[in-house]
Amino acid sequence: MNRLYQITAAVLPLASCGNPQPVNPSQQIGSNPVLPKPAEELVAAVGVPKTLGWKGSETPTVPPGFKIEALATGLSNPRNVLALPDGDILVVESQRVGSEPVERPKDPIRDFIMSLAHGGGGAKETSGAPGGPPQRITLLRDADGDGKAEARSVLIDHLNSPFGLAVVGSDLYVADTDAIIRYPFTPGETRIAARGQKIIDLPGGLIDHHWTKSLTASPDGTKLYAGVGSNSNIQERGPEAETNRAAILEVDPKTGSYRIFASGLRNPNGLTFYPGSNVLWTVVNERDELGPNLVPDYMTSVRDGAFYGWPYSYYGQHVDPRVRPQRPDLVARAIPPDYALSSHVAPLGLAFYTGSSFPKMFDGGAFVGEHGSWNRTDLNGYRVVFIPFSGGKPNGKPINFVTGFLDSHGDARGRPVGVAIDRTGALIVADDVGNTVWRVSYAAGTKAAAQASTG
């Protein structure tokens, strides 16, 4: 048990009860995860590591044959990354501004825990006033290709809790927590002075439970896809608070018209199309407070018009007994996702390998940034995993690819969020607790690299 959880438990006199759910997390990975009986918790099991940051020459760990270096340090809560064709890297430095109004007795506990989970020391986040969190897009430039950004600039500032990014032609689209904004953008420029143009509003407001809004563009650039998380755990704020939430929206950037592309996805992130196809994929954070081994977070292809269960059921048609009223008609439509990632790993980043510098086994596979959830005393996630693909589908168990974010005491030196593949084929990882963007490259020609490519 990590040290911070022991302290937190001392201020939470109510203990969770019910089925201890003795399931090995490895049994909850793949297309057919083990799903124990629900164990509803009055106060959720809590596991939040103390956040330390990286010291000196410390780095995360990567497999033999690979090298990890800090592309940039001293950032402020880097949450997402976008690699541009010219080699520049865009970094989203962002936090949720403000705190939600208290509507349940457990909400103050959850807000405190979430602040700890992001290195806030339990303090409430402040707004965009001086001293508040940065809300900006930073550009990193590694002109000499040595794996370190020798130049950085603020591309866009004074945003509203941004997260998602997409470039289409000469336009940069930013998904703030409450809108999609378009900026004119010429590759190579280091500062955008023009005012942004709002394309559509996104669900935000005072109650904004899942504030990160993922964003991607269709391969032909004619549509945008925005992931909008739910406004609650299991719709306890009522259906009105969930309008256009727990869904992926398809947006026409020319007209601002939109529709719900898929629904029942509690918190979809990492939206991206599988290389060479029109198949959209996402990673999803599932619901909390049903026990440490429910419900598995997942990665899935997204079918147009499909319903994935939230809040009425999980992993297909497994009914959540807490939701009122029940909706058996919707449960009957719910389809299971493609690939479970295990419970409470909190995936926030997804990137398919499209480079050519890694061994062939990585071609077309998925890198997933698992930020790690607070709803588990035995920590799960806190790593970047690689999932092999074959024929456009997951094929095999994940490989723990970037690890070491937790130290031997269970304290967090960093936490991975967004991931991307740069023009050299290196993996780029945003680390919001470590305030670092990492770059993982392949050390071709070494004995260790040869072993990695064949094993």
Description of the structure:
7% of the residues lie in helices and 31% in strands. It is mostly beta strands and 455 residues long. The chain has one domain: Neuraminidase (6 Propeller), CATH 2.120.10.30. Strand 18 and strand 19 form a beta hairpin. The protein is globular and about 55 Å long. 48% of the residues are buried. The model is unreliable at 1-19, 100-105, 118-130 and 445-455 (pLDDT under 50).
Write the layout of secondary structure elements.
Layout: H1 3-10, E1 29-30, E2 66-72, E3 78-83, E4 89-93, H2 107-117, E5 136-141, E6 151-156, E7 164-168, E8 171-175, E9 179-184, E10 197-201, E11 214-217, E12 224-228, E13 247-251, E14 258-263, E15 268-273, E16 280-284, E17 296-302, E18 313-314, E19 318-319, H3 328-331, E20 339-343, E21 347-352, E22 366-370, E23 383-387, E24 389-390, E25 393-394, E26 399-402, E27 416-421, E28 427-431, E29 436-442, H4 447-454
Antiparallel strand pairs: 1-20, 2-29, 3-4, 4-5, 5-6, 7-8, 8-9, 9-10, 11-12, 12-13, 13-14, 15-16, 16-17, 17-20, 18-19, 21-22, 22-23, 23-26, 24-25, 27-28, 28-29
